[in-house]
C-alpha cells in the first residue's frame, strides 16, 4: 500500500531560463528546510529519508524523495515525488 509515487507536469508560461526555474525550486525547498538537495542545470533532486517534524499543513511533511526535471525546449517542468 505504501509508498505512493506521484508524477506531475507543469508548463512554465513565463519567460524563464532553466537556471531561473531550477534556482526557484531549490530556494523553495531550502526555505522549507528540506535536507539533502542535489541539483544540476536542469534537475533538482532531494531525499529526506525519514519523516521530518513539520506542520500538518506542510505539503512536504510526507515526502520521502522528490525529483524535478525541466525541459527547456518544451518549457515543461516534470516532478515526481514519493510519499510515505
Fold and architecture overview:
13% of the residues are buried. The mean pLDDT is 79. It is built from 1 helix and 5 strands, in the order βαββββ. The protein is 17% helix and 39% strand. It has one helix spanning 18-31, and strands at residues 4-11, 37-39, 43-47, 63-71, 76-83. A 5-stranded antiparallel β-sheet has the order 1-5-4-3-2, covered by helices on one side. By secondary structure, it is α+β, with helices and mostly antiparallel strands. The protein starts with a strand and ends with a strand.
Blueprint of the fold:
Elements: E1 4-11, H1 18-31, E2 37-39, E3 43-47, E4 63-71, E5 76-83
Antiparallel strand pairs: 1-5, 2-3, 3-4, 4-5
The geometry reads as globular
Largest sheet: 5 strands, antiparallel
- As residue ranges, the low-confidence spans are none
Using only C-alpha atoms, the radius of gyration works out to: 13 Å
Helix content: 10-25%
CA-CA gap between termini: 10 Å
- Roughly what fraction of the amino acids lie in strands? 35-45%
Overall pLDDT: 79
